[in-house]
Amino acid sequence: MTQAAPTPVPAPPTPAPAPRVLCAMSGGVDSSVTAALLKEQGYQVIGAMMRFWPDDKRVDTFDSCCSPDAAFEARRVAEQVGVPFYLLDYREQFQRHIVGPFVDEYARGRTPNPCVNCNTKVKFDELVKKARMLGCQYVATGHYVKRVENERGEVEFWRGDDPRKDQTYFLWGTPRDALPHILFPVGELEKPRVRELAAERGLLTASKPESQNICFVPGKVQDWVAEQLPQSRGAIREIATGEVVGEHLGTQFYTLGQKKGLGLYQSHRVRYVVHLDPATNTVWVGDHEDCLWDGLRAEGANYLLDLAELPDEVEVQVRYRTKPVRATVVHADEHGFELKFAEPQFAVAPGQSAVLYAGPRLLGGGLIADHVRELPALG
């Protein structure tokens, strides 16, 4: 009698490989904890830092983020966490997308925000592309932003749980198709807890102080701008009458709402900068009321939802560290939008970001355009 062949035992299924993540590491505590948490959660983590600094970077800026010293610390943290680390050269992109436009905006009489540009055009554009080249499904950063999936399975960005650290303001320009590929492991944590987690893991950045400066600007912004743009004497004029009330060395040295350091002829009068006009090299000043805006127009818009879903009533934040205000959407298209504030707002600065929210959800934003107003004829 022929013996039946044994029934083959199926091989156990091969477990799917853990998702691969490119973790942006700046040498700070937030990105250090981000890398550690991802590793503990089972991700295949690749640490990376984007090199922005030029070869002739001044030594007095080495304590800022994205500096050679920060790169050294990021590499040491990667060794502590047990992940590979790479230094990626983005000097040319940084100069083209960040430093050059920063100077150009001041030359135009506007007030730029380079961190928005950096996140939009470098970190969540160039870095996402690099992640895909390396076979990574995700990019992770230490931003205090919450990644939320809605009932349709779509990824939304919400304000971080620590209101003092929320960084959604800087991420309105993120390409919408990149949202599903971005992780924020510390978005639901408060800063003190992040430092505790770093200390518990013995990470060398646990007590490292935060960098408050613009990474490529040593010292004061005005001093640095003065090195980039030549002085050009011009008139300071009263917005109501066109009267010359002072002299300036260049419109790039002023910001809307400024009232100190104007050097007006009638120094006893309180005046505010209400408009900058590089075309005529004129700084316009006026009363507090002249600095109040009923609404704004924004250009270069980016939306993190379908435009048809944009609510008629939104909250808008016109600068970092200020409370959002209610506004009505007068018009919105793929290029920009126009808003009317529920209450007039002081010194809304062209070049800054108007960031749109529905409660904690980030909807998108745009760059504030010049305030359209009728100016007195120059005599």
TrEMBL record:
Keyword Cytoplasm: yes
Gene Ontology molecular-function annotations: ATP binding; tRNA binding; tRNA-uridine 2-sulfurtransferase activity
Superkingdom of the source species: Bacteria
Flavoprotein as UniProt keyword: no
Catalytic activity: S-sulfanyl-L-cysteinyl-[protein] + uridine(34) in tRNA + AH2 + ATP = 2-thiouridine(34) in tRNA + L-cysteinyl-[protein] + A + AMP + diphosphate + H(+)
SUPFAM superfamilies from the UniProt entry: Adenine nucleotide alpha hydrolases-like (SSF52402)
Domain tRNA-specific 2-thiouridylase MnmA-like central, chain residue ranges per copy: 222-287
Binding locations of ATP: 24-31, 50, 142
Entry EC number(s): 2.8.1.13
Subcellular location, principal: cytoplasm
GO biological process, one term: tRNA wobble position uridine thiolation
Site-annotated residues for Interaction with tRNA: 143, 352
Cystine residue pairs: 118-215
Annotated tRNA-specific 2-thiouridylase MnmA-like C-terminal domain residues: 294-368
Interaction with tRNA, as annotated region: 165-167, 319-320
Enzyme class of the recorded protein, top EC level: transferase
Gene Ontology, cellular component aspect: cytoplasm
Active-site feature positions: 118 (nucleophile), 215 (cysteine persulfide intermediate)
Keyword terms, alphabetized: ATP-binding, Cytoplasm, Disulfide bond, Nucleotide-binding, RNA-binding, Transferase, tRNA processing, tRNA-binding
NCBIfam families: PRK00143.1, trmU
Role noted for this protein: Catalyzes the 2-thiolation of uridine at the wobble position (U34) of tRNA, leading to the formation of s(2)U34.
Protein name: tRNA-specific 2-thiouridylase MnmA
Lineage: Bacteria, Thermotogati, Deinococcota, Deinococci, Deinococcales
